[in-house]
Design a protein that fits this description.
The chain is mainly beta. It is built from two helices and 21 strands. Among the domains are: 131 residues, Carboxypeptidase-like, regulatory domain (Immunoglobulin-like, Sandwich), CATH 2.60.40.1120; 93 residues, Cupredoxins -  blue copper proteins (Immunoglobulin-like, Sandwich), CATH 2.60.40. The strands form six sheets. The protein has a five-stranded mixed sheet, with no helix packed on it. A four-stranded mixed sheet has the order 5-21-6-18, with no helix packed on it.
């Protein structure tokens, strides 16, 4: 009778036993990590500059945007709701604005008859002019500064009295007969404190006027007319005077000083004697002798412009005029 060969159970094989043990270990590890959840420990990115990151953690990103009134609206990008509050925007202090001129519309001139036969009245500025500019160069000059120890000269674009009376306006009859007697007086253009005084003057064609230096140092008188013949001469002595005249009508002949370039003044040269320049109250009175008739009276200011008005004069009948000019 033949013999059956001997065989060992599969469980007795050492290799099979090792494999089974590893399988059991893997199953146990899976069950364990499934129960405990994802790892919350820090790992490191494999980079040159490593930084910690969090794995499997929810992240909340809040995006804010500014809205009117200094508040903010929040939006959640991921991981639930979130709110964001922004501090109210700080109000910036208001910037100081420089003073600006206030323009206005001038009223029509007003004419009233006067019983004295004279033509007189007042020129008024309507609106608020810009501030005059300080002339710092006059204050800084070694000689001129001594003449202004407690003040600084300014420009004279608009010289206005408290009630609006406008100085340095020329008032003239434009259609009076040309010629007539030349006034005997000699207006003076004075250089004092490194300023020309007065700022505006007027003479008749052929009328002599005087240019004077009241300062103790050198000035130079430069007249630059467009119609008449100009002149340019020095006055180096205190009290020095020179007489001049113009032979043609011309409005606003400019006088300057080459030594002190801020110095300037203007002279009107007129064809008849019926004119005047307003005083510091804005008032004027024309010379007597205007023949009876109807005339056009012109008011002219270097900055505020020109206005005209019709007047009538006669025996014992004059005109009282109030004229307005506006800031420009």
């Amino acid at each position: 009778m033949s013999k059956t060969p001997d065989t060992k159970p599969a469980a007795s094989d050492p290799l099979l036993i090792l494999v089974a043990a590893l399988l059991l270990l893997a199953v146990a590890a899976t069950i364990y990590f499934s129960a405990t959840g994802p790892a919350k420990e820090f790992t490191k990115e494999p980079a040159t500059h490593q930084r910690p990151i969090i794995q499997d953690e929810p992240r909340v990103v809040v995006v804010t945007k500014a809205v009117a009134g200094g508040t903010a609206e929040g939006a959640v990008a991921q991981g639930g709701e979130a709110k964001a509050e922004a501090k109210p925007a700080e109000a910036k202090p208001a910037e100081a604005k420089p003073a600006v001129p206030v323009a206005a519309v001038a009223a029509a001139p007003v004419v009233k008859p006067s019983a004295d036969g004279k033509v007189h009245g007042k020129v008024v500025l309507k609106g608020t002019p810009p501030p005059e500019k300080p002339i710092g160069a006059a204050k800084a000059d070694i000689n001129c500064g001594k003449a202004h120890p407690n003040d600084t000269p300014t420009s004279r674009n608009y010289v206005v009295a408290a009630d609006g009376g406008l100085r340095y306006a020329l008032v003239r009859v434009v259609n009076a007969p040309a010629g007539g007697a030349i006034p005997a007086d000699k207006p003076v253009v004075n250089q004092t404190g490194c300023m020309y005084e007065p700022y505006v003057n007027a003479v008749m064609v052929g009328q002599t006027f005087v240019i004077q230096n009241s300062d103790s140092f050198l000035h130079n008188v430069l007249a630059t007319p467009k119609v008449n013949k100009g002149f340019n001469f020095a006055q180096g002595t205190q009290g020095q005077t020179n007489e001049k005249s113009f032979d043609k009508p011309e409005i606003a002949v400019k006088f300057a000083c080459s030594v002190h370039p801020w110095m300037s003044s203007y002279m009107h040269v007129l064809e008849n004697p019926y004119f005047a320049v307003t005083n510091d109250k804005g008032e004027f009175t024309l010379p007597d002798g205007l023949p009876a008739g109807k005339y056009t009276l012109e008011v002219n200011h270097l900055k505020a412009g020109t206005v005209t008005v019709e007047i009538e004069v006669g025996a014992g009948k004059g005109a009282e005029v109030t004229a307005e000019l506006a800031v420009k």
